[in-house]
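task queued by scheduler; priority normal; single chain, no ligands, no partner chains; default sampling; output format set to structure tokens
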Amino acid sequence: MNRFNLSLFTFVYLSCVSVCLHGARIQDLTQVKGARSNQLFGYGVVTGLAGQGDSRIEYTELGILNALERLGIRADKADKSRNIAAVMVTADIGPFAKEGSKIDVTVASIGNADSLQGGILLQTPLFGADDKVYAVAQGAVSIGGLSAGGAGGANVQVNHPTVGLVTSGALVEQEIESRVIGNGNSIEMILRSPDAMTAVKIAGAVNKYYPGTALAVDAGSVNIKIPASFRGQTTNFIAAIGEIDARPNIAAKVIINERTGTIVATESVRVSPVAVSNSNVTIFINPTTGVSQPLPFSSGATQVLQGANAELVEEIGRFETLDELDPQGATTVNNLATALNKLGLTTREMTSILQSIKAAGALQAELIIN
């Protein structure tokens, strides 16, 4: 008899005790307004794919014909060997990327190529949202997956072989000007996770070192005046501020990813007294043996038939309070995890229970389901 118990579940609890006690650097909580990255994109061709590239894709053929024409080679038809693939090339250019510096680029197939493994990205201009060329990409494509097939349609694929990376593959041709100084010789710090209390704490931490310079404008930004001693030394002032510690306000959230079965909760989650009922389901599969007899006077032979019966058993539900499951009281997410673990739940059941606890008003946290 084979037995499959469906009451398996894993709950992941990530603690933020260290951050809450010691705080975090301001440079890890914020970024300077005006010092932002910009997105670049372009259309390119990858060659050298050894039969793994696009087949009969018109824009791929046009792309390689145009590339050959720039080299002074005229051709009426493109190669049909599937050694090339049309790709979109994307990159992020940092706020202080200088002319001549290099950045990473990502390439992704837009045709029916099987893999970009071993390919070379031909010279590709990368455009900004203003249609200006800011970088030029070229180089060997590195992928984190593979694809292989054999006769009869057998095929195996690991990760995504049609998406790759060209490390330091783009050369910056034009810098993007960054303006970090606001009106009145001040800078504005933008919170990575907007929160009014965190903004106030950041302003308070800065004012301890530079009195009267920082003000929380709103939940997403803090304005800081540059002291006279740092005039003309904005970079030094930003570096000094970045090393100051501030204690962020961690919002109460429970995040569930139903696709992966992952549940993450912050330490500030609180739960009011609540009762939970749970029923476990167990499946029993029992093998059976039968005999098939032929008709009288026929030429058939007796055969032994193998089969199986499936039985589903649902246990009687338990209606218990979380305080009974955890003697210390399920008032925090840590105690909640301990209590619910004792029920032996699947991730699906855990999701349903958390939704019900939230609907009952007993979960003092934002519940996010992806």
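post-processing summary
- The helical segments are 17-22, 26-29, 58-70, 196-209, 234-242, 322-325, 333-341, 347-359.
- The CA atoms of residues 251 and 315 lie 38 Å apart.
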